[in-house]
């Protein structure tokens, strides 16, 4: 069974979360935000499913 993993770049993470670049990096320094994935050189990305899961957690924790 092959699993498809989509890696998204910073701009898309910003769009999905509504967070600024500096806020994303600040959250990334903590343990709760998904870790970035090195893509080579200075490029990084995030696993889309992990960002979606984090967003869902944020929504559930507000109750």
UniProtKB/TrEMBL annotation:
InterPro entries, from UniProt?
AlpA, Prophage_regulatory_activator
Q: Which domain of life is it from?
A: Bacteria
Pfam families cross-referenced by the UniProt entry: Phage_AlpA
Q: What is this protein called?
A: Transcriptional regulator, AlpA family
The protein's organism comes out as Vibrio xiamenensis
